[in-house]
């Protein structure tokens, strides 16, 4: 099943809000087709992740503090006849503005609050329900005008570390994770980006030695070397033509299951760019750029088999579906309309 998060309220003139909450679709991998199954109401569930073992969906509710900012958990049930329903597993209100990203770190959920620059750690119970907030970290910033903007985290289990993209401070920040789930920042390990690049999302390579980061405000993808104590930039590649780099609005970045291909989306030009990783040389090679099948692709994701890539085109309420060939190239198969304000995909 495909889980789709979306905006239920208009965020700005380019980001409509017509979703009803968290939606579930059937996905037919033989033909790359989606079919609506049901939804549960939620206020701006803009980012979703899933615990496939427990059939639990977690949603970041992207609102201001006191107006619904939080994280919700829902168990998704499906009968033999195909009927789908949600069981509410609770909601945790957050002391921060604009939670926009979630990730797992063992028995905790990490929440990035973009608006207020907070990183929250929430306990996750055995049944998948949410426990208490065990830590809230107020990020610092060297840029006093913009301040910190937490945008994405990734947990590296072998290193027991969390990497955080701070779009406001233009840094990839590093935190050590203790056994109780609490985090301690290691400022001396932070990786700096050029001013106003806006590192947005990070994805870890399957081998644990590399990661990729996209920049929101300039059309760059960065290959990060994690083989040493401190993250280092191994390579950088443009995902847009040089003449329009400054007009970029980078959104999501994903890696293929085997770690050989990078896919990243841009909202300004409504495109998906495919890049290849040369792991031996630690370099990125540009492959091709494709129309996203709609307008303003906020997220993209690969199907569990890796045979399909989907784009969440927020502005025109569509989902683009692409066939992925064995070499990583994309072929547009379908664009499904009337998927209200999609912003994120996850799989159950």
TrEMBL record:
GO MF: 6-phosphogluconolactonase activity
Keywords: Carbohydrate metabolism, Glucose metabolism
Entries under Pfam families matching the protein: Lactonase
GO biological process: glucose metabolic process
Domain of life the protein comes from: Bacteria
Protein family per UniProt: Belongs to the cycloisomerase 2 family.
Name of the protein this chain belongs to: Lactonase family protein
Organism: Neolewinella aurantiaca
């Amino acid at each position: 099943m495909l889980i789709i998060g979306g905006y239920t309220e208009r965020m700005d003139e380019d980001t409509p809000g017509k979703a009803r909450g968290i939606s579930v679709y059937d996905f037919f991998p033989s033909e790359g087709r989606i079919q609506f199954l049901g939804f549960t109401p939620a206020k701006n569930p803009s980012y979703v992740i899933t615990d496939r073992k427990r059939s639990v969906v977690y949603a970041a509710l992207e609102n201001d503090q006191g107006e619904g900012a939080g994280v919700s958990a829902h168990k998704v049930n499906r009968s033999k006849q195909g009927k789908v329903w949600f069981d509410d597993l609770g909601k945790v209100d957050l002391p921060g503005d604009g939670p926009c990203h979630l990730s797992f770190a063992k028995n905790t959920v990490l929440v990035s609050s973009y608006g207020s620059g907070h990183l929250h750690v929430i306990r996750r119970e055995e049944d998948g329900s949410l426990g208490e907030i065990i830590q809230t970290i107020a990020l610092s910033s060297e840029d006093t005008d913009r301040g910190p903007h937490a945008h994405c985290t990734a947990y590296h289990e072998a290193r027991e570390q969390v990497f955080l993209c701070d779009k406001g401070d233009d840094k990839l920040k590093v935190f050590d994770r203790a056994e109780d789930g609490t985090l301690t920042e290691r400022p001396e390990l932070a990786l700096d980006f050029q001013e106003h690049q806006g590192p947005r999302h990070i994805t870890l390579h399957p081998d644990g030695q590399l990661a990729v980061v996209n920049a929101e405000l300039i059309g760059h993808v960065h290959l990060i070397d994690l083989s040493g104590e401190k993250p280092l930039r191994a390579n950088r590649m443009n995902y847009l033509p040089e003449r329009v780099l400054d007009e970029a609005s980078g959104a999501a970045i994903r890696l293929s299951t085997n770690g050989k291909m990078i896919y990243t989306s841009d909202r300004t030009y409504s495109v998906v760019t495919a890049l290849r990783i040369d792991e031996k040389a630690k370099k990125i090679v540009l492959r091709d750029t494709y129309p996203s099948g709609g307008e303003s692709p906020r997220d993209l994701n690969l199907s569990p088999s890796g045979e399909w890539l989907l784009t969440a085109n927020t502005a025109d309420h569509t989902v683009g579906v692409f066939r992925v060939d064995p070499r990583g190239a994309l072929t547009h198969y379908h664009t499904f309309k009337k998927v209200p304000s999609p912003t994120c995909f996850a799989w159950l």
